[in-house]
Structures are given as C-alpha cells and as structure tokens.
Design goal:
The complex is a heterotrimer of chains A (345), B (375) and C (600). Chain A has 345 residues and is mostly helical. Helix content of chain A is 74%, strand content 2%. Chain A has one domain. In chain A, strands 1-2 form a two-stranded antiparallel ribbon. In chain A, a hairpin with a 2-residue loop joins strand 1 and strand 2. The termini of chain A are far apart. Chain B has two domains: 194 residues, Response regulator (Rossmann fold, 3-Layer(aba) Sandwich), CATH 3.40.50.2300; 127 residues, Rossmann fold. In chain B, helix 4 links the parallel strand 4 and strand 5. Chain B has a six-stranded mixed β-sheet with strand order 2-3-1-4-5-6, sandwiched between helices. Chain B has a four-stranded parallel β-sheet with strand order 8-7-9-10, sandwiched between helices. A three-stranded antiparallel β-sheet of chain B has the order 11-14-15. The longest helix of chain B is centred in the C-terminal third of the chain and has 23 residues. The termini of chain C are far apart. The chains are: A mainly alpha (345), B alpha/beta (375), C alpha/beta (600). Chains B and C meet through helix 1, strand 3, helix 3, helix 4 and helix 6 of B and helix 1, helix 2, helix 6 and helix 12 of C.
Chain lengths: 345, 375, 600
C-alpha cells in the first residue's frame, strides 16, 4: 500500500464517513427528542435519491402516491380528533398541510414536467416531496405510542422500516439508479484528484452540521427540541408540545436523510434497500456518540467510514466482519468512560 | 387457547380442487435477489393458459431469497396445492433447499437457477440455466485468445459471487491463467474503491466481475473512474437493460457471456434458437415494454417449454394430481431430446439434467448501450 | 365464557398440541414445526429481553452456530483427527454445538454485557453481523451457498424424518424449555433476574450478583437458540447463512415483543402469529391486489405497527384477558416453611458502624466533607439536615453504591470502603431507598423475598428443574413473616405497584429485613405515611431496636425523628454541624440557623 493508495482510501472513507455523520446526527436528534431509534432513516436516503432519479428519467415517482396517501390518512385522523374536541379552527390547517400540500406538489409534477428542469430545481422538488413524509410517518406510526417503552418504539421502528422498504421495491423496482454529478469540476491535490461530487458531499455535510448547530443554539424551535431532549416532562410543563417536537425532529431527520441520498446518488448506485446498511452505519456512529453527543457521533462516523475503506482494501470479503468486530472495543471504551452510577433522583 | 387462534387463522386458507395441471412457482421476488427474481416471475404472466394442451394453473410464491421460506413454500405447494411440478427457485441456496422437498415428495422440479451437478443430487431435479463453468469457459477462451495471463476478480460477497468464482477459478488454473487478486463486495455497498485499488495495484491483464444487475455495475464504473484501461469480463447475471442504464459509458466494451436469446436479432437465421427467442421477446416486451426482455425471464420461458413437452407426454399416461403423473413428467423431462429453447438446445439424459451444450453460450460486447454479438 | 382453571387451560392446550399432527394436514404440521423452532429462540429472548431487560439482535447468529456445528460434523468427510470421533453423530454434534455456543456466548457476553444502555443492542448487532459474514466466508462450511445432505436424526433406532415425527421432537423440546423457563422465573434466581430490569442498584444492594446473572441469562438464551438451530438443520437438511443474518435476528425480537415479552407464552404466541400472518398474507394479497407487486412486507409492516400501537405489552396479555382463567387457590395462603438460619446478632451497645473522615467529591463539588458518625447495636441514629445537605450521598457511601474520595468506613470491626454494595450487604447491612425501588408487577411477597436472596444458594439450574422447592419454601416463608411483621399481610398477594406510596416504603423495610441484617439503613421511611401508619412504623423500629438491631435513619419528619432517635447527627452542605441527643440538637444554634435561618 503506497502513499497514493492510502490517500485515496482516506478520501473514500471520509466521503462515506461524511454521509454516516449526517445520518448519525439525525438519529441522535430523533432519539433524544422522541426516544425512537429511527431504523427507517435509511429509507429516506433511498427515497430521496430514487425520487430525484425518477424525475430525471421522466417518470412519476411512486413516493408521490405515498405522500398523497399518508396525507389523506393523517387528515382523516386529525380531523376526527379535531371535531371530537370541537376545535374547528384547526380544520383549515389540517386540510392545507395534509391535502392541499400533496395536491399542489402533484399538480406541479404533472404540469411542470420536471424532466427538463435544472438539477437544483429537481433536487428541491424531490426534497419537497420526500421530506414531509417524515412528520407524517411520525404522526401515523409513532405518535399514538409516544409514551411506550424504548423497546416497543424500536420494534415499531423496525415494522415501519419493513413497510417502507416494501414500498420502495414497489415504487422503484429492484434495480438501482444513479444521478448526474452536481459538478464535473475536480480538484487536484498533489497526486490525488478529488472529484467535484466528493467536495459537494464534504462541503454540504459541514454546512449542514454548522446549520444544525446554529439551529439548536439560536432558534426558538431548536431550543425547544433541545429542551425536550433533556427533559420531556419539563419541556411539556414549559409549554413545548412533545408532538410538535416529535414531528419537527422527524422532519429534520427526513430532510437530512433525503438530502444525503441525493448527495451520494452521483457517486454510487442507490437501490430501494440501500438505506438500511447506510443507516446502520450511521447508527453505529450515533451510538459511539452515546446517542447524545453530536461531535462525538460525527467523529465516530468518520471512524466507521475509514475503517470500512481500509478493510475493503485489505480483506474485502471480511469487511463487515472487521468493521463490526472493531466496533465492539470502541463501544466498550465508550461504555466504560461514560459510566455513571444510577443516582437516586 | 393460542392454538385455537392458530387453527382458526389456518382454516382461513382455501384450497380449490381443480383437475387442471398445477404448477408451483417459487421465485425470490423480494430480498437480496429481487432484481433477478422479478423478471423470473414476470414470465409467468405472459405464458399461455395451457400446458401440454391441458389447462394450467400457476401458483407463484415469493421466498424473499431465503431458503427457509423456499422450503415452506415448496411444502405448501406440494402438500396443500398438490402441484404436479415445481419451477424454481431463483438463487442457488433457495433452489437447493427446494431440491430436498421435491426429492422427498417425489415431485419433479425444474430449477431456474443453476444447480450443482445439474440436479443437486436428486433424480427429481432439473435445471435450465447453463452451468457457471460453461459460461466462464467462454470468457476464458476469449482471454486465452487475447493473451491474458493474469486476472483479477471482484464479485458479490454472497452465493452468486462464490459460484462465479468457483466456476472460473479451476478452469483458469488449468489453462495457466493466474488469478492475482480475488475481492468481494456486498450488493448494497456504496463504495468499492478499496477493492478496485487493490486490483489496480496488482496490474492484472484483465478483470472478471461477479455481480448481478445494477449492483454489478458498481466495480465496473469504479474501475473506469480509477483509470483501468484493460479488458473487463462480466458474467451473464448482469444482462438487463438497467445494467446498461446505470453503467452508461463506463461499461462500454465489456465482454459478457450469455445465452443466445439476448442477441436473437443478430443471430443468423440458421441458428435454431432464433425463432423461439423472437417469439419469447415479442410476448415479453408486449407486456413489459420495449427492451425489457432479459436473460432471467428467458430461463423461466425455457422452463415452460420443457414443462410443456413433458406434460403433454405425461398426460397420455396418467391424470394430473397423481403420483404417476408426477413420475411421468419426470421421465418425460429426462427424455428431452433437442428441444429448442431461447437459451439453447436441451437434451437431457439420466446423468445430465441441464442438457445444454456450447450452443447455449454466446459472447457479447457492450456497444452503444446494447449487446453486440462477438462473432 | 366460563372461567376455566389454569391447569384446565394448560391441559386443553397440551391435548390439542398432542392431537395436532393426527388431525391437521401435513402443511400445517410444517408450519407448526417452524413456529416451534422460532418459539424456542423467542423464549430465550423473553428471558433475556422481556424479563431481564437486555435487548439482543444477535440471537440468529447463535441459531447459526447450532445449525452449522451439526451440519458440518455430520456431513464432512475430512474432519480433523480431534473431531473425527464425534463426526456423523447428530447427538454428539448437539453436545459440541452447545459447548461451542456456550464458549462463544461467554466470550461475547463478557465483552458486550459490560456495555450499558444502548451500547448493548448495538454490540449484539455488531457480532450478529460479524458471525453472519463469517459463516458466508468460511470455505469449509460451504461459503454463502451452504451445506446440503445433512442426515436425518435417529432416535432410538427410528429415523425422525417426516414432518409429523419432527413435530413431536420440536414441541416436546419447546414445552420442556417453556416448563424450565417458567420454573426459573418462579424462583429465587428468577426474582433476581426480574430485578435486573429495574436497574442493578437495588438488586446489588440485596446481594444479587447482577453481572454474573446477566451472563447466565445471556448464556441460556444463546443455548436455546443453539438447540433451535440444531433442530432446524436436521429438519431442513440444508443450511446456508441467510437464516442467521441480522434481519432474522430482528425478526426473533419482533416475535417476542409482539407475543408479549414478559411471559413465556408470549414467545409461542408471537412466533405463531407472525408465521401464520405471513402465510396468510401470501395467500390473500395476490387475490386482493393481483400478483404484479409484492405487497406482503408492506402490509405486514403496517399490521405490526397497528398491533403495537394497540397492544404495547404484546398480544399475550390481551389473550389472557379474553380467556378468564382462575388462578390457583393455593397461592392465597401465606407460604409456610422451616425458618431460615439467622445471623448471630451483636450484643446491644456493640459498635456496628464507624465512619471516619468520609469525603466525597463530584468534580469540584464536595457532597460530603470529613463526616464522622457511629451506630451501635440497639440504637437508632437519625441523620437529618436540609435538602441537598448530602444525606443520601452519605447513605450511598456507607452502602457501597458510590466510592469514597477519602476517609474510611468500618463495619463490624473491618473496613468496608472499597467493597461492593453486594459484599457489604452480605456482611449484614441492609437498606431501603428514598425513591422506592420495587418491581411494580411482582407481588408484595415476591418483592420482599428478593431481600432474602443472600440467604438462599440455589442457582439457575436447580430452579429450572424445580429441585430447590424446599429452600424456595423457606425463603418465601421468611418473606411472609417479615411482611406480617411490618403489617402488610393483607396485601401479600397484590401487585407491589398497586400499593399506596406509604405502604411501598413499608414494603421496602420488609424487603430489607428479609436479609436478616444487624444494621438497617432507612432513607426517609415515614415520607407519605399517615399519622397512624407512622405510629405503627415507629413501633416497629422500636421493637427492632429492642431486638438489638442498629438503625441509621434519614428523615425529614422532625416529630417522628425526635420521638424515636437515640442520637441525632445534623448535616449541612456536606458537613456535620451537630451531634447529640434529640433535645440537645433541637436547641443547637447552628442547627436552628441551618433550618430556620439563611433565608434572606
């Protein structure tokens, strides 16, 4: 292994690690706010990328029907609750977001012919289509069981994952897709060429992490999410709705997931079931961060990416064995260093 | 009490008793093998309503590419639906798992995935696809012709990857071609840069890839991206239009062994498979759109052709739904002589339950996003 | 529906099971075989996850170990010499598989069970995936393609080959394991396992070796999975890595949770419901939606979500409610048994506990600074002070929950600082908790019996085989005696969670007394008690004192303290500010300042 190979593998590991980092941030966010270990995170990666690929191929993505269907279901449930509670003022809002919004997107897709749009507009449309699925999934699957144990929430998470993967296969078929690169420019660093898309991935990841940092530190919604993460009951007493916090965290997670998928679709092929393994590695990183610390989770993500890149060079058949076996000592170390006595409180 | 529930739920099954010929079909239409399983399955939607002249009912079950499910499905088909013939399954481990059930229940099985030793050691099992060894021999002959001395391999870390490697390695060794590196990757991996760098460092004369469908394009694309200039050999599991779509420019020039059906229109009229292949292509593309025909659904079609002949013979001896009928189908399959299919010409014997020869293999090159027959 | 007795329901169930293969078509027998195999694994998860609170995604890998061991040993023709002896025999392969699984489980358990919280499930995912890929990459076990031609089982010279024959083998194995698990949960070891879920703090304080217990249940669950794998290999006669991957590992957990992870029958129900539902969807959906797509997983996922939203504890509790089963009558009488041997109590006035210069810092915060106190046999020492004065920290230091930063603690003449909570408990110190740590779904009797854990010795194996009934009877009788002593005999068979908070505190005292201590540490026992209850509690403590027990009491209720305590130590900001007789302390200016002053 010469220097150039070392550097190339490092670049590969960091690129993948950046995606794992984004996903791990989303997972940490969702877990701390809702206690849900969000296994379906990976499906948003696939949905984002494959929806964009569908637009580019001039097809109507199946996710549109999912958005419409989920919107109708949410509207029905929320209307029933609103009417039972006599809260008529909520009706317009419910109809607008759950029926009006999907209808608007549908019209846009059928009349707008997104096939010929510039890439940036196609990306925005894909996000506009996939991201609202996040809060809708929260509303339909998790909100009715929000107070259940972490184990039950985890199993619901797995069930949602199964349903979404099945839908992915139905919508996009078993074969994968790629999308064109955001930029064909390349950066020459010594003997290494760094492709434009790699720079996009790294830059966007950094930017998103910084944006999230600002969001949590500066905005009222960000602070509300942090408060909920630290103490759910306390936050509720302070008038922060846990439902709102849950939906918001799912919205962010879906946005991060879908955007990650769109970022890597030009570098790799995305399949309907790609998301699970990517999500799992994001999850590994999140756990290394103790499901609580964003910077440590991001560092863990880079570690996973690098481990993967180097072990795929040295013993590719045993890559997963190596990655996941080496995770155990890291977990042990994290577990021992974050050890705390169960204090009486 | 739980038992009551189970019994009530189970009682929800209905089994229709019809005197038609019943064919059970097991495909891996979900799970890791879905990209192959779906076209395999599609064929059963275009087949005629009769088999061997008798009305036929196809019962298609999905095994999710899991052998446990394949066995459950096989048992259900044999014990509940009382099928006369099983077609399937679509991956080697699932097909092998079905072999045991078929053998024990004395039900003829036509596997649409290759079986080790052509019948997986069961007198009741037959297989349609060319063995890996035949396919890889075509690659190897081309390599020898072009002076290739060293080969690198990158394949799936699953059963398919194992078979392609094992189909190639012994023959290559015998022919004096050295395999310098053998790397693996998972179907859903997002990067194979590590494997490709290792291959490049070994400077092989040629690279053989052992993936399937669109995931088979990933190492191909990465090799080109990393500046590999030598010849790339693929395998027949990548032959579908999605592979060309995803692979794009990167896969141009690749050499692929496959059945003649893929280049039917380029074959001389003297080739016996041409007519049958064009028939199949017309029927399949009529249903699933232009360019949708592929090697996998053609295997299903050949399985149908074999079954059609065997059932016609068996119907003269016995009635569907009886053990005698099943045995008659088995015997008839074993006596198949020069049956022209899309992938080749089938002649079975007691010891050879695949029955294809070198006529079942063509080498194609990818040119202008299409498959071009290498003459 | 008429109420049926528990025994009657069980017999009806067994009769149905026994007759099943004779009445049912072959395919249903096949399904029941798979249900049985899955249920064996799920049963291990009930013990590990549902009861013990340790989530594992990796059970499928243990199934794989069992399956591959027998597949390899019974088919390989070129076994290494040291293995050649066992080659060809499925039964020896089972023994070897169990031994191998135990070894692997011990190693993995030693590594991953140290992981706290969410690290544990991830750890299990990690080795689950590693083992799966290892199966696929080892040439000698057939790589990803797998091993064919595994021989059928021979049982007493008969070949167990048909589905019906196998059915009896699987279900007898499953029922035996259900019986053993049921026995285990209803025992000293079982109570300790159930205590794990509430956190290890209370369990350790009652003398339970939680680390060892976790390994034990992990081992049991792994061995169950191995048995299932062994049966699977000989039923299927073919193995490849697919059924041992992470996805299947998740599915086992699914079965346990859907069925009801808190009950052994939940494992059977979960395995049954999921297996049957999948078959049913496979038949039904193509008829409804056509065969062009694959809707099974989608509909399956949606049904599971809805089911969990409506039945968070799984389906078993719903089913149990649907069928009104009378519980056995014998349970309602206080258990009788020979009294357990008691500790030699130190004579009244003997120095029990001596704390010298105890200091505890959390980072820069000094929670306890240079604390001194002593407790003698036959006296009540009250530790009082305003909120945040460091009383509970002091308690934790004495009982070994938290280590000292400096100073020493001597109990019965030897130093105990640095010892674990468990070791200290074994020396005769027992405690209650300020925030009640009971197991709310267990009965009052069982909760108290946890306190007697150290006075028994029978472990998991005798418990599973019910060979410890004599000792168990004595432990329960002791628990009943202590419950009567504190005056909770009327509630003995109620769930601890249904008691009023005051009664729960009293139950904590009964649990502490079950350990036969000579020093009792009580953290705010009178909080939440009504006047008469306080009187009764004070009487109880006086009686204990008269018997020679030393009592260290943290309490806020001044009337209660002053009427009861022999001496009082007052803390503020982690310091001792006064010590003396109750009436002296009440007049101490520093104490008055601490309680009344300082408020600007």
């Amino acid at each position: 292994m010469d220097l150039q190979i070392t550097l190339l593998l490092g670049q590969d590991g960091i690129t993948n690690g950046a995606i794992y980092a984004l996903l791990s941030l989303a997972l940490v966010l969702v877990f701390t706010v809702t206690r849900v270990i969000f296994i379906p995170q990976g499906e948003f990666v696939a949905y984002g990328a494959l929806t964009l690929a569908s637009f580019q191929a001039g097809k109507t993505p199946g996710t549109l029907w999912l958005l419409a269907g989920a919107g109708i279901l949410v509207a029905l449930i929320d209307l029933k609750i609103a009417l039972a509670a006599g809260a008529r003022q909520r009706i317009a809002r419910i109809l607008l977001w759950n029926l009006g919004y999907p209808a608007a997107i549908t019209v846009l897709i059928f009349l707008g012919k997104p096939e010929g749009w510039p890439l940036a507009a196609q990306v925005l449309l894909s996000l506009a289509l996939v991201v609202p699925l996040g809060p809708m999934v929260y509303r339909l699957a998790f909100q009715p069981a929000a107070e259940a144990s972490v184990l039950v929430l985890l199993i619901i998470s797995v069930a949602v994952h199964l349903a979404l993967v099945g839908l992915g296969l139905l919508f996009f078929g078993a074969e994968g897709s790629r999308t064109p690169s955001f930029s064909d420019a390349a950066l020459q660093l010594g003997s290494i060429t760094v492709s434009g898309q790699t720079l996009w991935v790294l830059g966007s990841s950094l930017l998103l992490i910084a944006a999230l940092y600002q969001f949590f530190g500066r905005t009222i919604y960000g602070k509300a999410l942090r408060a909920t993460a630290i103490n759910r009951t306390g936050a509720r007493l302070m008038g922060i709705s846990t439902v709102m916090a849950g939906k918001l965290s799912f919205l962010l997670a879906a946005a991060i997931g879908a955007f990650s998928g769109i970022l890597i679709a030009p570098i790799t092929t995305i399949y309907y079931d790609t998301g699970f393994l990517i999500g799992l590695k994001g999850f590994v990183a999140a756990i290394i961060g103790g499901l609580a610390s964003y910077p440590v989770a991001a560092a863990g993500a880079l570690l996973v990416g690098l481990l993967e890149a180097y072990s795929s060079f040295w013993a590719s058949a045993f890559k997963e064995v190596i990655v996941f076996t080496l995770i155990i000592p890291v977990l042990l170390w994290r577990s021992l260093t974050t050890h705390h006595v169960e204090e009486e409180e | 009490m739980k038992r009551l529930l189970v019994v009530t739920l189970i009682a929800g099954y209905s089994t229709l008793a019809l005197a038609d010929v019943k064919v059970g079909v097991i495909v891996g239409a979900t799970g890791p093998g879905a990209s192959l399983g779906i076209p395999y399955k599609n064929t059963f939607g275009i087949l005629p309503k009769t088999l061997g002249g008798e009305k036929v009912e196809y019962i298609v079950l999905d095994d999710g590419t899991d052998p446990t499910n394949a066995v459950t499905n096989a048992k259900k088909l044999v014990l509940e639906d009382k099928v006369d013939l099983i077609i399937g399954s679509t991956s080697v481990p699932t097909a092998l798992a079905v072999v045991d059930v078929a053998n024990e229940t004395k039900t003829p099985q036509i596997s649409i995935s290759p079986l080790p030793g052509s019948n997986g050691k069961s007198p009741w099992a037959f297989s349609v696809p060319q063995s890996m060894a035949i396919m890889m021999k075509a690659n190897l002959d081309h390599m020898k012709l072009n002076g290739v001395k060293t080969v690198a391999f990158i394949g799936f870390a699953d059963a398919l990857g194992d078979q392609i490697f094992n189909g190639f390695a012994p023959q290559a060794e015998a022919a004096g071609i050295k395999i310098v590196v053998a790397e693996r990757y998972a179907r859903t991996d997002t990067s194979v840069v590590g494997q490709v760098l290792k291959v490049l460092a070994a400077k092989p004369d040629a690279v053989l890839l052992g993936g399937s469908g669109t995931p088979g394009a990933l190492p191909h694309i990465t090799l080109i991206e990393r500046g590999y200039k030598g010849p790339i050999y693929q395998n027949h599991a990548v032959v579908n239009k999605d592979f060309l779509r995803v692979g794009g420019k990167s896969v141009e020039g690749a050499i692929v062994p496959t059945g003649p059906v893929i280049v039917a229109d380029q074959l001389p009229d003297s080739n016996p498979t041409k007519k049958v292949s064009l028939q199949y292509i017309k029927a399949y593309e009529g249903m699933f759109g232009p360019g949708s025909s592929n090697a996998f659904s053609a295997y299903s079609y050949d399985a149908y052709l074999l079954a059609d002949r065997a059932v016609a013979i068996a119907l003269k001896k016995s009635k569907p739904g009886t053990p005698e009928f099943r045995e008659a189908i088995r015997d008839a399959l074993e006596s198949t002589k020069e049956l022209v299919g899309t992938h080749g010409v089938y002649s079975m014997t007691r010891t050879d339950h695949t029955g294809v020869d070198s006529r079942a293999v063509v080498l194609v090159r990818i040119e202008n996003a299409g498959w071009k027959l290498i003459k | 529906m008429m109420a049926v007795s528990q025994r009657g329901a069980l017999f009806a169930f067994l009769a149905l099971l026994g007759a099943g293969p004779l009445l049912l078509p072959e395919f249903y027998v096949t399904l029941l075989n798979y249900i049985g195999l899955y249920a064996i694994v799920a049963l291990g998860l009930v013990l590990l996850t549902g009861v013990g609170g340790l989530t594992s995604f990796g059970q499928a890998a243990f199934v794989g170990l069992g399956a591959y061991t027998t597949a390899y040993l019974t088919t390989a023709s070129d076994l290494p010499a040291w293995l050649a002896l066992v080659g060809g025999s499925p039964w020896l392969a089972l023994a070897l598989g169990l031994a191998g699984t135990a070894a692997v489980a011990l190693l993995l358990g030693a590594l991953t069970l140290r992981l706290s919280g969410h690290y544990l499930p991830l750890g299990t995912i990690a080795w689950g995936i590693s083992l799966y890929f290892l199966f696929g990459n080892l040439e000698f076990i057939g790589g990803h393609t797998g091993i064919t031609g595994i021989p059928a089982l021979q049982l007493a010279g008969v070949e167990v080959k048909s589905g019906r024959a196998f059915y009896y083998l699987i279900w007898i194995a499953l029922l035996a394991l259900v019986w053993a698990t049921h026995n285990l949960l209803d025992s000293r070891a079982g109570r300790a396992i159930r205590a794990l879920k509430g956190g290890s703090l209370m369990a350790e304080a009652m003398g339970v070796d939680t680390a060892r217990l976790k390994i034990e249940i992990f081992l049991i669950a792994a061995l169950f999975a191995c048995v299932s794998g062994w049966l699977y290999a000989h039923l299927q006669r073919f193995v490849n890595p697919t059924p041992f991957g992470l996805g299947v590992g998740i599915e086992y957990l699914f079965m346990a949770v859907i069925g009801g992870a808190a009950s052994v029958w939940g494992a059977l129900l979960g395995a049954g419901v999921i297996t049957v539902l999948k078959q049913w969807l496979q038949d039904l959906l193509p008829k409804l939606l056509g065969s062009s797509g694959n809707f099974e997983t989608i509909v399956f996922g949606v049904i599971m979500v809805l089911m969990l939203q409506r039945a968070r504890d799984g389906l078993w509790p719903l089913l149990a409610r649907l069928v009104p089963v009378k519980s056995g009558e014998g349970q309602r009488q206080a258990p009788q048994g020979e009294a357990l041997p008691r500790r030699q109590m130190p004579a009244a006035g003997t120095l029990l506990l001596e704390v010298n210069g105890a200091t505890k810092r959390f980072g820069g915060l000094v929670a306890c600074n240079d604390m001194q106190l002593t407790v003698k046999a036959g006296e009540v020492l009250a530790l009082i002070g305003p909120n945040g004065a460091g009383k509970s920290t002091m308690f934790n230091l004495i009982s070994g929950v938290a280590p000292l930063t400096a100073g020493e603690i001597v109990f019965l003449g030897s130093r105990i600082d640095g010892l674990t909570a468990r070791a200290i408990a074994q020396r005769g110190m027992s405690r209650s908790f300020q925030h009640v740590r009971l197991l709310p779904t267990m009965s009052v009797l069982e909760n108290a019996a946890i306190g007697a854990h150290m006075r028994g010795s029978k472990g998991v194996v005798p418990a599973a085989l019910h060979l410890e009934r004599v000792e168990e009877g004595r432990l329960l009788a002791e628990a009943a005696r202590q419950i009567e002593r504190v005056g909770l005999e009327k509630q003995m068979f109620e769930q601890a969670g249904s008691l009023a908070l005051g009664q729960q505190r009293i139950l904590e005292i009964a649990r502490a007394l079950c350990a036969d201590p000579c020093l009792l540490l009580l953290d705010e026992p009178a909080a939440g008690l009504r006047y008469l209850e306080k009187q009764a509690l004070a009487d109880l403590l006086r009686r204990l004192r008269a018997e020679g027990m030393g009592i260290l009491l943290v309490e806020h209720d001044m009337d209660f303290v002053m009427g009861l305590a022999d001496r009082v130590v007052v803390m503020e900001f982690g310091q001792r500010i006064a010590e003396g007789l109750p009436e002296e302390v009440q007049r101490d200016p520093a104490v008055l300042e601490a309680y009344l002053g300082g408020v600007e």
